[in-house]
Amino acid sequence: MKNKYVCRSKISEDKFRKIIKYFVLDLDPQKIASLTSLNRNTVNRYLVRIRERIYTVCVRQSPFDQHAVGFLDDTLGSARIFGLIENGLRVHTDLIPVQSTARLRHCLKANGDGRSLCLPERWTCYDGIVDMESQRLYGLATYGNNNGRNASCGRVIEDFLGYAQKRMLHMHLSVMDHFGLHLKECEFRFNHREEDIYQLLLKMFRERPLT
Hints:
About 45% of the residues lie in helices and about 10% in strands.
């Protein structure tokens, strides 16, 4: 079926646009399936592919030196601990690989108040670190090659975390699979909060259709 948004698509362009519309509205897969008259498994597959593309876009826009593109690797986000950096009115997130989380949590817990952290240089690029296990945000102190970044997290990061936490609680992300995908979706939605995300996504898929 011809569909300029999806290669070798089995659904029409109109159906895909509706999936995007209801995705932007944050409707759950069952509701989207009902409104589009599509099978729920079909809707779920498209939602995962849409989120994978969003993840890739966010990684490409990220200021971090990416250690991996890990949305298909459950070990990357399974520990649910991530760093953040404030970039103007945007926030970028970076999932910590599971093999590093034990040491990082040890360092964080060694600094009782969480406000004056001195971490190994590899983690000083962040403005803050969030540990979903403890539901805590740690602001980072200036250390090593931290380039004089502030010890306390900025308002934009706080706004992002408030927004992300609300979505995570709504979607029960603390126990969901694909945590990394949903975290990057929060990042994408927050960073484009002043834009028409529906039109932005359609343009993205016109220029580079889903495969």
